[in-house]
Sequence to fold (576 residues):
Amino acid sequence: MIDRHPWLDALAHAVLIIGVLVVAFPVYVAVIASTHGPNDFMSGLVPLLPGGEMVANYRSMLTDGLSSSGAPPLGGMLLNSLVMALAIAFGKIVISILSAYAIVYFRFPFRAVAFWMIFITLMLPVEVRIVPTFKVVADLGLLDSYAGLTIPLIASATATFLFRQFFLTVPDELMEAARIDGAGPLKFFRDILLPLSRTNIAALFVILFIYGWNQYLWPLMVTTTSSHYTIVMGIKRMSDVADALPQWNVVMTTVVLAMLPPVIVVVGMQRLFVKGLIETEK
Amino acid sequence: MQTKRTVFGNRLLPYALLLPQIAVTVVFFLWPAAQAVLQSFQREDAFGLSTTWVGLANYLDLLDDPSYLNSLKVTAIFAPAVTLLSVGLGLVFAASLDRLVRGGRAYSTLLVWPYAVAPAVAGIMWWFLFNPTVGLLPYLLAMIGYRWDHALQPTDAMILVVIAASWKQVSYNFLFFMAGLQAIPKSMIEAAAIDGAGPVKRFFTIVFPLLSPTTFFLAVINLVYAMFDTFPVIHATTGGNPAQSTNILVYKVFVDGFIGLNLGSSAAQSVVLMAIVVALTVIQFKWVERKVTY
Fold:
């Protein structure tokens, strides 16, 4: 820093420490709650120190689920979430990079129309047009399937824009040299453009994985039997037990399991995550 | 629109490359959106047997509908509250971190991870913390004589959903402010320091004005987030209640369309929301391109 203000530095540390604690506090309470047996919540206050039921809670939820509220074992739900998140991330990247390639490296009639059509999807969040979209998926017979969970969500304007911006910065000479050497468009794409896009793809993958994993309303709509439940929507079913207080310890066990994978991805790939986040929104 | 200086000459290949994206867009985006627009001009009888063309009646009904006006009012409180809280805290954390020479990375990691938590999960965690029977915060509030009950008190419910919705968004705003702060040339700050401006004065006369493009961008993004992406927070916690006090517009579209089966009205509400998103997106692009001036 330019000038020394020890009290200001102390204040900055204090603000950040309080911030970190406030941010972590709900998660701390959730983790603690997931280590207790159901009777520890009868006293009228949530326990703040770890209990001894952690292994039992996680094991029973992962393998048996919660029969009283018709919740299937969490193992299957985690798997469904993983399939959904990976399919959405891969799907979005593949269809976006192909369409960005077409828009930047070719000139053809209706190019602008295609560009604007993709752009419009950016403006229509699924929540806003949920009823007609649900109807389309139902008419196509895609309810209760992985296809129904993922395909309606894989059109992505943001990913297309990111790749378009990136392709525009790739030097023209690369493509000209490739053409002189006799490479066709597919060879150029595979051998030159794709390797150059590696970092962008990875950064985007982190963001899209989180996006896919955290989907809530859409899986809630299109899954009617428990075989395709995802974990984020499953929490709702569990905390909604009719005429009974939620079993907090197992609800919080589910909460912890639902947020662990995306949090690990963000913390483990922080650099890629920050790059992906800041670049997709520009 | 930009392309390369030289392009490939194939005629059919570009269409083949675009096909998957366009197909998904048409089937799952444009077609449903068109359906919503069409339905908003129609009314279905109670048994779903016949539909009649009613013109603008669905829209006009909205203007007379007290529950819709209430929902507008709720959104007008909720969305700016979430935006102010999460953008404000993001700026405070980023500005604090910017002062520090060491420890930056650790703090930053510890502040960033909530972005990964699903809104629904964030909602459930805060709902648990604020639960009137077992939650910690009502227990503490009772000590100072406040009886917290978000199942009965509209204000309590609103505070709950605002906090739950803002919590995970702070990390996002923090990251963008960090990027914005790093882009400010150090020489400007140094020049101001030499001229005798203290850290507080420097922040308000130099740093904050230079951050105005970032702030504006985040304000729009957070408004969009609060209006549309917070659906899971409401659905997983208050369900729009008590007494419709947290029934934001996007939640009402869902309730009227799926539970009330009032398709015409729900479609009209969808169209209004789409218009709002389009307006916000256009504003964002226009202003971000031009950069806010200072």
Observations:
- Chain A touches chain B through 106 residues (CB under 8 Å).
- The CA atoms of residues 35 and 52 of chain A lie 6 Å apart.
- Residues 34-280 of chain A form a domain with the MetI-like fold fold (CATH 1.10.3720.10).
- The two ends of chain A are 30 Å apart (CA to CA).
